[in-house]
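Objective 1.3, modelling of assemblies. Example input:
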Amino acid sequence: MARRGRRPTMVDVARRAGVALRTVSRVVNDDVTVGAELVERVRAAIADLDYRPDERARHLRLGVTGTLGAAVRQLSHVNPVLRAVERAARAAGLMVLAASTEDDEKIERHVVESMCRRRFDGILLEPIGADHGYLVPELAAGLSLVAVDRPVLGLEVDCVLSDNMAGIETAFAHLVAHGHQRIAYIGDDERIYTAQERATAFRACVRAHGGASAHMIHTGPIMPERIQAALESALSGPDAATAIITGNATLSVEVVRRFRDRTDDVAIVGFDDSELATLLRPDLTVVAQDDAAIGDTAITMLRTRIADPSTPVRKVTVPVTLRARGSGETPPKS
Amino acid sequence: MARRGRRPTMVDVARRAGVALRTVSRVVNDDVTVGAELVERVRAAIADLDYRPDERARHLRLGVTGTLGAAVRQLSHVNPVLRAVERAARAAGLMVLAASTEDDEKIERHVVESMCRRRFDGILLEPIGADHGYLVPELAAGLSLVAVDRPVLGLEVDCVLSDNMAGIETAFAHLVAHGHQRIAYIGDDERIYTAQERATAFRACVRAHGGASAHMIHTGPIMPERIQAALESALSGPDAATAIITGNATLSVEVVRRFRDRTDDVAIVGFDDSELATLLRPDLTVVAQDDAAIGDTAITMLRTRIADPSTPVRKVTVPVTLRARGSGETPPKS
DNA sequence: CGGTATCGGGATAACGTTATCTCAATCGGC
DNA sequence: GCCGATTGAGATAACGTTATCCCGATACCG
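Predicted structure (tokens):
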């Protein structure tokens, strides 16, 4: 059929069907102004040659690519939002192509710029780092971009975030309702936006609750020794914590790992749901993000912006849910 | 600078720099035959206008896109191979764009065909289902494709697989070496290639070992009730199993979940390593795939085929490693 | 000083589509 | 039976690049 090395083009199809190039285009695009007999001839030629339209040329001519880019922190990690994103995009007839930024500013920039040069219709970005200046000219040139999970600091860009503050407040209130007075927080590096927001919310809770203890809040990069030390600090002394809130799924794992062999009756509420939550004893109570809503919202916002770039910038906060499973309902031991 | 709505093109840059279109192209592509002064003028114009080359046009003209597609089962799941793939591709100056097939034959086909129409230089595919006939014309037209994790059944296509058989043999021998005589296997749906291969390997081990018990091997779609029943069957009666091999990471989770509250001293070896493995007590002994090697190999094979499509088809098997962590070293209880 | 390498850079033609314009043929109406 | 409207389909010009060709100017050599 097709000879190896070069794919057939519309010209080849037209020649074979004995029609004009333009007619092939019309058939391919289901233009109704082509006679039934010609349509048949062209279809046959397409099948004979295994013709496949070249989207590069289509997109160049059309101006749009029907493609959205997703620049996420790590493709190899679990990312439930991405599933919702792909679903919603497919329903809209758009293709999502994803790439990792590897939590590296250089790579993020490279990925986003590559997508821009490929003229993707829009980009979903989980922004990292502080300096997103490279985005300015792209946005000025008409790039449609929606930030997910974190905002693009310093730039007026659409974003969809989880309600981190409410999540921490909910967790805190839940523990208080179960009788806890001394609650500790183990969080991630506060240079990360979400970590910073959650830690801040926790501090506000402590203040509002009247309590205050320096050894009750520990944030910083995730390292086993640091977490070990933080737990030691929080759980020792006369005013030891009776409950712990962890700042994200990775920290939940690390903290739970430390508790594996202990029998302390410490209550735990984790931020972010995960597969691990129902593996533990008792099951882990978590504050869960609404992945589906985040993904759907992100795609909706992106499509809106693509359709009308003059749409006012929106910052949407998606509610979180507390899922009580046992670990957060343990009463204080003392 | 750039006026909103239309991105500047080479023509705009050329006009601004007062040079010919071709000269801008030369500067962009670092052609040495351009005088230093002109290079400067062109560079300035590019900066002024925030010019970004349109890769659609470049790719169309060049014939290649410098892009590899990765069609994986689920982007939202953990997929360590993908990280190695992205790394290796980046090192080679190629961009990897990934999309989910959602374990759905229809979607797989749609994704692969979309990548073909976009004229990606090559595709990495985790094939699902049985019928990959749609690939035949694409391959004939020169598509470079490498199957990962599973082969494309019925088609002569490059593939890189884990050594499933050796993995099961290693796990089995490990348990035998620790004194186990009655070993059970809980596996996934045998319509899945890897599940079928692992189950077959297990059956061979049982035969070679002289043992044989129908209630020792249970495969089928992953459903909690089925797994519960399988465990009941394997662990009851006078010839109850003293050790279990699980067929993949998901099954390890499900099985371990059942054991959470029991105190049976059953040894467990899981197929696939995961974050969960070191959360348990004792830590889970696993047969781990070499994700980095799989990813690197896949990219190397794909690049080789792209460079020379007449390269003979290769099927590479990557060794697996047993990671003894405790759960697989438990002696038989009786 | 004339002829020929050498070099820098411009005109023009692809790459494979789609959109605009044009035109021939058919049809209906008075 | 003639004219305007309608329909089907071809010629041609973009889209934004890169590659081929070519030409003018300088440099070098005999």
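The mean pLDDT of chain B is 91.
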